[in-house]
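Shipment paperwork, digital attachment
Item: protein structure file
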Amino acid sequence: MDFVELVSAGGRARISRNGAQVLTAELGGRPLLWCSPHAGTPVRGGVPVCFPWFGKHPDGLPAHGFARLREWQLLDQAADRVVFGLDDDADTLALWPHRFHAEMTVSLDGALNFTFTVTNVGTAPFGFTYALHTYFAIDSLAEATVGFEQQQAAVTLDDRIDAVFGNAPGRLVLRDGERRVAIDSAEMTSAVIWNPGDNDVPDIGDEWRNFVCVERGRIGAAAVTLDPGGRHISSMRLTSWCTGAGI
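Attachment content:
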């Protein structure tokens, strides 16, 4: 598996070409993301890219699409920025009969930044769903919450949860003790908050207490439709800090 390392004054990140998946990231010297200690393919943790569908497929195709299972091309790289690309081929067309070009740009400054672009390079319209399935490392699941716009509609994370929000605000805030993580997104109107709770999943097990997934993207009724030549561009920015007071 090939990796790209990003380093900036604000932190560092490690990204796999397989799935264009950020596996680990630190901001301000503290881990931002959780990644399973148990080896598996695809890797459980970090920020998997779910595309061109989210969740289970009605025809039994790979859950969360094929993008996270494919090796992406390295299109551009700098010390604090990398761009990956994915194009249709015979294998993807057998699963999803549409011609496309996707790009994932990951960069580091004082935050971890993502820009996801999908272009319809075919001759017919197509629709798709997607999500950045981010696994956040936390200290205490029992004390963590996800707040919508200044603590309104705060979601408590002390047990199994699978909450889907079809029209979530652009900013969500994960609160874990004195730590805050702002999840700012543009054109990602859907949000999913997920933790399996006590489970027998081989690559999670007792580790479920150490993470929560807060996912942004476009799923369900928020699916994207692109005409030939059309392009969808979305972004997410993760910022972390500690404070003794609320935000």
